[in-house]
Design brief:
- This protein is an alpha/beta fold.
- It is about 40% helix and about 25% strand.
- The strands form two sheets. The protein has a six-stranded mixed beta sheet with strand order 6-7-8-3-9-10, sandwiched between helices.
- The chain binds adenosine-5'-diphosphate and magnesium ion.
- Magnesium ion binds near residues 46 and 88.
Length: about 260
C-alpha cells in the first residue's frame, strides 16, 4: 500500500564517466522496516546512499520520499525532510568531547544567523540550551550518557560508531541510513549495535543499512536488497536472499577475483 512507503527509488542510475556505479535500481522502503542493502565491494551501495542523501544528483531516475520528489534536492534539504545518515568512514572531531560531537550535528539545524551568533542573542542562548539537552537525550538513547565528557579520540572504536549514530539522530529523522555500522566492531560491540538499531526502529524510525557482516544482516533485516556491479540482482527476506543462486554467485565470484 502506497501509504506504507517511505522511500522509493525508481530506475536510479548514477554514472561516473563510463561506469554506471548504480544502474537502473528500483527500491522501495516501507515505514518501520529494517532494510539492508548488501553486495560485494564496489557494488554501488555507498553511491546509492549518496544519491538518496543528495550528495549526488542521479544521472537518471527519481527518488521519492514520503510521496515527494527529492531527486534534485541538496543534502541539507534532504536532512530537513527527515533523512539522516552515517558514513562508511568515521567522521568525528577527535579533539572534542562526545557531547560536543553530537551538538555539532545539531548545530547545522538551528536557525540563528551569523549576526545572531556574533552578538550572542537571547534566541541563540535558548538554542544552545536546547541543543545541549537534545545532545544529552541522544547520548542517553544510545547508552553513552556516562561518556559525554570523554574526548572522541579516547573512545573505543565501537563507541565512536555509536556516537555517529547519536549525532545522526539529532536531526529527528524519519529514516536513518547506516553505511557499514559494524565495520571494525568486535562481537560484543556488534551485539550492542543491534540492540540500538532495534531501539531506533521501535521508536518509529525506519532503518536502511549497508553491511558486510552477513550474520548481522541476516539476523536483523526485514528485507534485503542485493546489488552487484550497480544492478539490483535480488530482493526479499533473509531466507530468500541467502538461497538465491545469483547472490551466491556474486559473492563467490568476488572471492575468486580477490
Ligand atoms: N565519485 C566517484 N567517481 C568515480 N567513481 C566512483 C565515485 N564513487 C564511487 N565510484 C565507483 O563506483 C563504484 C561503486 O562504488 P561504491 O558505491 O563506493 O561501492 P560500495 O559502497 O558498494 O563498495 C566503484 O567502482 C567506485 O570506484
Ligand atoms: Mg561502500
Amino acid at each position: 500500500m502506497a501509504e506504507d512507503i517511505l522511500l522509493k527509488a525508481e530506475k536510479v542510475t548514477m554514472q561516473f564517466g563510463g561506469l554506471k556505479a548504480v544502474n537502473e535500481v528500483d527500491m522501495t522502503i516501507k515505514k518501520g522496516e529494517i532494510h539492508a542493502l548488501i553486495g560485494p565491494n564496489g557494488a554501488g551501495k555507498t553511491t546509492f546512499f549518496n544519491v538518496i542523501s543528495g550528495i549526488y544528483m542521479p544521472t537518471s531516475g527519481t527518488v521519492t520520499f514520503n510521496g515527494r520528489d527529492i531527486t534534485k534536492l541538496r543534502p541539507h534539504q534532504v536532512t530537513d525532510l527527515g533523512i539522516s545518515r552515517t558514513f562508511q568512514n568515521i567522521r568525528l572531531f577527535d579533539a572534542m568531547t562526545t557531547q560536543e560531537n553530537v551538538m555539532i550535528g545539531h548545530h547545522t539545524r538551528t536557525n540563528s544567523t551569523i549576526l545572531g551568533t556574533m552578538f550572542h542573542t537571547k534566541k541563540m542562548k535558548e538554542e544552545e540550551w536546547k541543543c545541549y539537552h537534545r545532545a544529552e537525550a541522544m547520548l542517553e538513547f544510545v547508552g553513552m550518557q556516562n561518556e559525554k565528557e570523554t574526548l572522541a579520540s579516547n573512545l573505543p572504536y565501537g563507541k565512536k560508531r555509536i556516537l555517529e549514530i547519536a549525532r545522526a539522530l539529532t536531526s529527528e529523522p524519519r529514516i536513518i541510513m547506516l553505511d557499514e555500522p559494524c565495520a571494525g566492531m568486535n562481537a560484543s560491540e556488534t551485539n550492542d549495535l543491534a540492540q540500538i538499531i532495534y531501539k531506533i526502529r521501535d521508536y518509529g524510525i525506519t532503518v536502511l543499512l549497508v553491511e558486510h557482516d552477513m550474520k548481522f544482516v541476516m539476523g536483523i533485516s526485514d528485507v534485503i536488497t542485493v546489488l552487484d556491479h550497480g544492478r539490483k540482482i535480488c530482493e526479499g527476506s533473509p531466507n530468500k536472499v541467502k538461497q538465491d543462486p545469483q547472490v551466491i554467485e556474486a559473492y563467490l565470484g568476488k572471492e575468486d577475483e580477490e
